[in-house]
Amino acid sequence: MPSSSFSCGFASIIGPPNAGKSTLMNALLDCKLSIVTPKPQTTRKRITGIYHDKQMQVVFLDTPGIMEPMQKLHEAMLLATRDTLRDADVIIAMLPFRKKEGPFDRDFAATLQNDWLKTSGKPIVAVFNKSDLVTLKEQSEAEAFIREAWNPAAVLSISALKGVNLPELLEALRPFLPMNQPLYPEDALSTAPERFFVSEIIREKIFLLYGREVPYSAEVVVDEFREQHENDPSRKDLIRCSVIVERDTQKQILIGHKGQALKKLGQAARTEIEELIGRPVFLELFIKVRPDWRKKHTLLKSYGY
Ligand SMILES: Nc1nc2c(ncn2[C@@H]2O[C@H](COP(=O)(O)OP(=O)(O)OP(=O)(O)O)[C@@H](O)[C@H]2O)c(=O)[nH]1
Question: Which of 70, 117, 265, 286 is the most buried (most CB within 10 A)?
Fold first, then answer.
């Protein structure tokens, strides 16, 4: 039973592409909810993940990275980020440390403050991620700079990858979580349906297995998810997905010589989907070409943007 000192609320994680937002959410939840790849802009839609302990429940909203919109898809991604700020009780504004060109990007920090944080009217917890890449001195100088520039509710340096300062981050959020009862049951990990995670897993494998523009041009739609085990436990669940690309050449790359590349993609995705849902599945992937889908409003809408 939650105690009277229980806290619950929504925290949005916002920052540039590749800052480590998804890594942080996965580390806090101790499971892999958001896809993580070394390539920027892998997260396209907002993803919720729910953290629980005896004192608090935090519903984290992971967001697509903030960048200059180059096409309609990016505009839709940025709208998803704006929405999460509106829903947040507290915002985790993440800035990644880097090894080259100074410890962090001050220009981006200014943009984040002017275009996103100032107007949100929400308490800000400034988080420098990737603290493993810089010295302690660089960390405290960066923290002092942001304290002065943003006047946030709290500032701290963490390493999502190495698990450094994560309990401290949770404590920094606590004062801003307004509810004294949990919103979700203790075993709920996300508010998104299984289907969503299935498409995200396939998207992640595309990012990991293919080079150049193919991952950015690919979208995954789950056309059918038939839970056949319920009637007959010996039958595998059937999952049929379309992988949408923009050009025929991309389709050829996805399929590969004698279908070898597509086979590899299917195997990698199936293994992880089975881990996620805890049952064997039969995964079918169909590659479809939809020219310029990232620029077309109606297609974007039909893919959930
Ligand atoms: N050295 C170091 N690398 C990290 C840390 N956290 C994340 N990374 C790496 O940074 C890369 C990007 O991580 P993500 O979690 O996908 O970043 P993101 O901000 O969600 O990226 P987008 O999907 O582009 O918005 C991955 O290669 C991570 O392994 C950290 O604390 N230290």
Answer: 265
The first and second tokens of residue 56, run together, are 């608090």
- Residue positions forming the annotated binding site: 15-22, 62-66, 129-132
Q: Which residue has the tokens 């420098």?
A: 128
User: How much distance in Å is there from the Cα of 20 to the middle of ligand 1?
Assistant: 3
Query: Distance between CA atoms of 42 and 238, rounded to whole angstroms?
Result: 26
Q: Which fold has domain 194-302?
A: GMP Synthetase; Chain A, domain 3 (3.30.300)
The ranges of the chain annotated as CATH 3.40.50.300 are: 7-176
What letter represents residue 8's amino acid? C
Phi, psi (rounded to 5 degrees) for 238: -110, 125
pLDDT of amino acid 1:
46
Beta-carbon contacts of residue 296 (< 8 Å; ≥ 6 apart): 72, 290
CA of 159 to the centre of ligand 1 (A): 10
- DSSP-derived 3-state class of residue 191: coil
Reported as a pLDDT band with limits 50, 70 and 90, residue 2 is very low
Superfamily of domain 7-176: P-loop containing nucleotide triphosphate hydrolases (3.40.50.300)
Show the tokens assigned to 127.
């988080």
Q: What is the pLDDT of residues 185-223, one digit of tens each?
A: 777 777 667 788 888 899 999 999 998 789 989 999 988
The residue whose CA is least distant from atom 1 of ligand 1 is 130
